[in-house]
Amino acid sequence: MNRELFSAVLGDVLDQMGHHHQFLPPQVGPLEPGMVVTGRAMPVLCRPGPPPDGSPLGKMLEALDSLRPGEVYLADGAGANHALWGELMSTRANQLGAAGAVLHGYHRDTPGILSLGFPTFSHGGYAQDVRGRGHVAEYRVPLRIGQVEIAPGDLVFGDRDGVLILPAGVAEEVVRQALEKVRGENRVRDALRRQRGGGLRAVRGDVKGLVDCPDIHDPRRHDRPELRMPELHVHPPPDETHLQHRAAPVGSVDLH
Fold first, then answer.
1. How is residue 234 annotated by DSSP?
2. 176 partner at 20 to 30 Å CA-CA among 2, 52, 160, 230?
């Protein structure tokens, strides 16, 4: 049902609902253009420098092992000059059923991540190791990245045009309105293909119930099925009191 959706239409609806700062900074993009990520946010707070407790990575392994099916590992790199994510972390996250990783910072091991097909969004590839340069301080805590406030359980959606956050309390309504908007735009596209003159303004006047559609010329949602949104079922975030995490820990392996 929801394979029609894409970041621009979700952002337009959020704007119309008064949520004007929901896109992460534009540096955050997919490892390859066809990647799409959608899932519930599992926010991860990173800090520069080694952990105060003397451990090599802080709570990184603990945070990774806590991922639940359908969640997105969403890390704020705090201006990090090192990679926040790599192939072994992707392998573990994929094993746990996570939906993807979104990093306000760098990744490494690009070929390995691409071979897994694990949806990963970052500032780009940079192979510098995290050890001694940064650590995970906390996870499942609220974050602020740029102008975006992110809470655990918010809905994350990303494609080649950007990553945005749908607050949990409005996500279902945003998706509903976005689907209506896309279907209205599709009617305009079909009408434009049929008519020979009059232009967009005339066509919009003839399409009953059309919502505002500034992006009707975007071909991605019509001609590139691989870039459409995966099935998105908007359920409330899980009740943590009824979840038991059964996955075996990663241990002390080098995650990069």
1. -
2. 160
Residue range 31-65, pLDDT digits in tens: 999 999 999 999 999 999 998 888 888 899 999 99
Confidence at residue 178, expressed as pLDDT on a 0 to 100 scale:
94
* The two structure tokens encoding residue 189: 């596209």
- Residue 145, in any domain of the structure: yes
Q: Which domain holds residue 110?
A: 22-166
pLDDT score recorded for residue 251 = 37
Position 112 in a domain: yes
Read off the tokens for 42.
Answer: 């599992």
> Which pLDDT does position 196 carry in this prediction?
62
How many domains is the chain built from?
1
Residue 90 is assigned to a structural domain of this protein: yes
Which phi and psi angles does 204 have, rounded to 5°? Answer: -60, -35
Give the separation between CA 216 and CA 88, rounded to whole angstroms: 40
Two tokens, residue 176: 């509903």
pLDDT, position 249: 39
| Residues contacting residue 206 through CB under 8 Å, at least 6 positions apart | 191
Strands in 28-161 per DSSP E: 29-30, 37-48, 71-76, 83-85, 100-104, 106-107, 120-122, 134-139, 143-145, 148-150, 155-159
Residues 6+ apart with CB under 8 A from 156: 37, 38, 39, 40, 41, 72, 74, 99, 100, 102, 163, 164, 165, 166
The answer to whether 63 touches 139, Cβ cutoff 8 Å, is yes
Residues of the chain with confidence (pLDDT) below 50: 1, 206-230, 240-255
